[in-house]
Design goal:
By secondary structure, the chain is mainly α. 39% of the residues lie in helices and 5% in strands.
């Protein structure tokens, strides 16, 4: 006796009728009313994906969750345009797309865990995070033994200010030379011999 396959047909859904402008306004009002009622019952409504440590940040805080969600939205739009540029073989589009993808991941991790792991923030990654040392490390050998390890441009809690290059000499750190930008030597073309 031959075996037969069981054939299942896909359920066909009837398309919705388009809403009129009045119906859209009324539906939006009902939805807003329902959201307000739910928010009164549960003050954390809509914040379940946000870590507890950043839920109660003030609205004007530079890393408020609502701002970060807006940054994610902007970065997704930029990523979409970069992916179109990749399809057109635009130079540098792959690197820009990777940058946008990475920043989106960092922002989503911040909302989930409450830990910021990137040096830049803002809608277009235009602002730099000020690094801060809460617990200092110490030199354990060499001429600076026992002194706190310092890095220029970092805020130190024990001093209450940002450490600068000039402070190395003032504090008596031995062997620290200021960082100078070196000029890259120009590459010269070799003459072609005939």
């Amino acid at each position: 006796m031959p075996r037969t396959k069981k054939v299942t047909t896909k359920k066909v859904r009837k398309p919705r009728k388009p809403m009129t402008a009045e119906q859209k306004v009324a539906a939006a009002e009902r939805l807003e009313k329902a959201r307000e009622a739910r928010k009164k019952k549960n003050p954390n409504y809509g914040m379940s994906s946000v870590h507890e440590s950043i839920r109660d940040l003030p609205d004007d805080h530079h890393l408020h969750p609502d701002k970060v969600k807006q940054w994610i939205k902007t970065q997704k739009d930029l990523l979409r345009s970069e992916k179109a540029a990749i399809r057109q073989n635009v130079k540098g589009a792959i690197a820009k797309a990777a940058t946008h993808e990475g920043y989106i991941r960092v922002c989503q991790r911040y909302l989930r865990d409450g830990n910021r792991t990137d040096l830049f923030y803002g809608e277009h990654q235009e602002k730099k995070v000020q690094q801060r040392v809460r617990v200092p490390a110490y030199h354990w050998f060499g001429p600076n033994t026992g002194k706190i390890k310092r890095t220029a441009g970092v805020f130190y809690d024990d001093m209450g200010c940002v450490w600068t290059e000039e402070m190395f000499a003032e504090e008596g750190y031995v062997g620290h030379a200021p960082i100078e930008e070196k000029k890259k030597p120009r590459k010269r073309r070799a003459k072609k011999s005939k």
